Amino acid sequence: MRVIFANLIAIYRRELQSYFASPFAYVIAGVFWLLSGFFFFAILLGPEGLIAQSALRDQMGVTGQPTDVPYQFLSFFLGTLSSLAMFILPMISMGLYAEERKRGTLELLATSPLTNWVVALGKWLGAITFFITLLLPLLLYQAIAVSASDPPASLTVMLLGHLGLVLLAGAILSLGMFVSSLTDSTILAAILTFGLVLVLWVIELVANSLVGPVGDGLKHLSLIKNYNTLTQGIFDSSSILVFVSYILLGLFLTAQSIEAFRFQRS
């Protein structure tokens, strides 16, 4: 067990270092931060932003149930981040195994004493850690904004929303890693991963047109449905289970893909 853990840490460190040593990773980070920052200020301070709408309601003397501006801000911004992640994450996962195939090192990796599960888990941990580092600056200015609101936003909504974002990223990266193990083209891996994620993203629209257990089952597979549940501040164990299942499925399929590659080379 100690040897397995040491091998896992070694793979994890190698993958994480490869991200921070790659100029392309910094381009991804820069684009993600630029777009997320733009939408942050557009949602919060723009002419159609939540603060402007709230001020307009006050000026017009609109009565009725007050608008929960902090909650709406977090809901809109987390929804925007999930849409950005759908484009960014396939680019993070596309080289996890495709680069190994291109460099010819996948055969060495497949025939090494390391188990396929250890390698896949180490690569996935490196990718998800890199994505979490992209979220840290966003957490800082979100915390500043919501703490200055009156009344302040619910901490539960903020924590569950970002937990949902990390789980969503973990699911996409795991499935993207499997796709990356099937090809030596990083561009093809990114395109196929985006297509797969898009199907899982909009499957709820298909489910809504169906009735009975089939429609209900498809709804449970929807990434966006389960993500929205968490961003609403609802701790739903079934939504968390769906994301964890996608993560484990991606790891399992990746391990089987590399095992098939090893069998072909033996």
Structure description:
With 266 residues, this protein is mostly helical. The chain has one domain (2-265). 82% of the residues lie in helices and 0% in strands. The protein is built from 12 helices and no strands. The protein has helices at residues 2-20, 23-45, 50-59, 69-93, 95-103, 106-110, 116-147, 155-180, 186-208, 213-221, 223-231, 237-265. Helix 1 (2-20) crosses helix 7. The protein is globular. 36% of the residues are buried.
Please sum up the structure shown.
Pfam families: ABC2_membrane_2. By secondary structure, the chain is mainly α.
Mean pLDDT: 83
How is the quaternary structure best described? single chain
Helix content: over 70%
Question: How far is the N terminus from the C terminus?
Answer: 27 Å
Coarse shape:
globular
Strand content: under 5%
Number of helices: 12
The class by helix and strand makeup works out as mainly alpha
